[in-house]
Amino acid sequence: MRLATEEAKIAHLLRRTGYAFQTPPVKSGQVAAVVESILNTTLEAPKPPMSMVWERTEMQELTLWWLLQMMKSKHPLQERMTLFWHGHFTSGIQKVKRPDFMARQNVLLRRHALGNFRKMICDVAIDPAMMIWLDNNANIKAAPNENFSRELMELFTLGVGNYTESDVQEAARALTGWRLNRKDPIGPQTVTFSPINHDDGRKTILGQTGSFDLQGTVDLLIKQPATARLLAAKLWEFFAYPSPEPSVLQPVIDAFVISGYEIKALLRALFTSEAFYSDRAYLARVKSPVEYVISILGLFPGLQLQEKHQKLTLQSLHLMGQELFDPPTVAGWPSGAAWLSSSMMFARFNYAEVMAENVPLSGWPSADKLELCLKRAGLEDLSKQTRTQIESYLKQTKATGEKKLRGLLYLLFISPEAQTL
């Protein structure tokens, strides 16, 4: 078993809930205690730039701000969960066209990152960016729009096959009446409820009949077993490994339901599951492009993202397939092996090469101190093949000093182990 000791398990936990460069020296202790310390850290509430005019440069500013937040946050799990929710409750700037609304949604997702799932859905439903993205702003009694109700069931809660077309239609009626007040775009009344535009008649949703509104509809969806199952499976795959066994997933589902749908309870059950520390979980997660970029940038505390580095980072994320605030579909981004196409890997390697040539090396040991370099990079457990290739480079290269270290960094950045968590 790869994770046989408490120290190894704790190191694995910290890698999955944070980033290698944020991982403190692992001391002896109990996994459960470390899990509690991670989950109970005081959450942060950073304020992103809240630009109001749709310009490309302003979205770049917002993206760079979030990347920096991921790198420097004292609560990395909160940022990881914010990224997860950004892919779950997806909205995109191409349709929303309001950087301030995208920033506002980012704040909302971070605030609810480890909170109550029911409350989160209710707030997301009336988030300005989401209302534009899935057209609920156009959902009125006289002309119901089913776009949001459909994705609410298919993507956010129940999953495909667990609802009918009639459920979508009836839920759309229940969700009518919420309006975006464009005369007050940043004030507390950005979104208001218009009773005259709400269908207050009786609806039948998932076999239940009543005068359901937004909160009533969310309550119906939350209580369906399919919702807890979908979210538990999705979070398991985000933190552990793909296609979890039903027997492994059930305790996580149970903890979530018993807690009243508290996200923190779900994560506690996930992070204390024996399967989370199994051989199947070890280095089983392919890093998303954002995770890959952050895993490099964060290794160099002295790095100031100059304009050329900012441009390279944003362009590289585009080529790798993941632009923050601009998902490819309403379902968000792919995961796993989908990130490893030849073109996407080429983009990773190009990024690794340029960054290895330009990052500040202050505080790094010399290339000849390989074990220290591996520890600094969070890549101590290389495969025999990777280690052999790196040792061969160190023996055969004619480069010395800084140039030799930069060559080593490039090999580390493009190694198979650097692509996984």
Report what the structure shows:
The protein has 421 residues and is mainly α. It has 3 domains: 6-40 and 225-277, no CATH class; 131-222, no CATH class; 289-419, no CATH class. It contains 20 helices and 4 strands. The chain has helices at residues 6-17, 31-39, 56-72, 76-88, 93-96, 99-111, 117-125, 128-133, 147-156, 165-174, 214-222, 225-239, 246-258, 263-271, 289-297, 307-320, 342-358, 370-377, 384-396, 401-414, and strands at residues 178-180, 191-193, 203-205, 208-210. The strands form 2 sheets. A two-stranded antiparallel ribbon has the order 1-2. Strands 3-4 form a two-stranded antiparallel ribbon. Strand 3 and strand 4 form a beta hairpin. Helix 1 (6-17) runs parallel beside helix 2 (31-39) and helix 15 packs parallel to helix 17. The model has no long low-confidence stretch (mean pLDDT 92).
How do the helices and strands line up, and which of them pair or pack?
Elements: H1 6-17, H2 31-39, H3 56-72, H4 76-88, H5 93-96, H6 99-111, H7 117-125, H8 128-133, H9 147-156, H10 165-174, E1 178-180, E2 191-193, E3 203-205, E4 208-210, H11 214-222, H12 225-239, H13 246-258, H14 263-271, H15 289-297, H16 307-320, H17 342-358, H18 370-377, H19 384-396, H20 401-414
Antiparallel strand pairs: 1-2, 3-4
Helix pairs in contact: 1-2, 2-14, 7-11, 9-10, 12-13, 13-14, 15-17, 16-17, 17-20
Give a brief rundown of this model.
The protein has 421 residues and is mainly alpha-helical. Helices cover 53% and strands 3% of the residues.
The averaged pLDDT comes out at 92
Order of helices and strands: HHHHHHHHHHEEEEHHHHHHHHHH
Number of β-strand runs? 4
Strand order of the largest sheet: 1-2
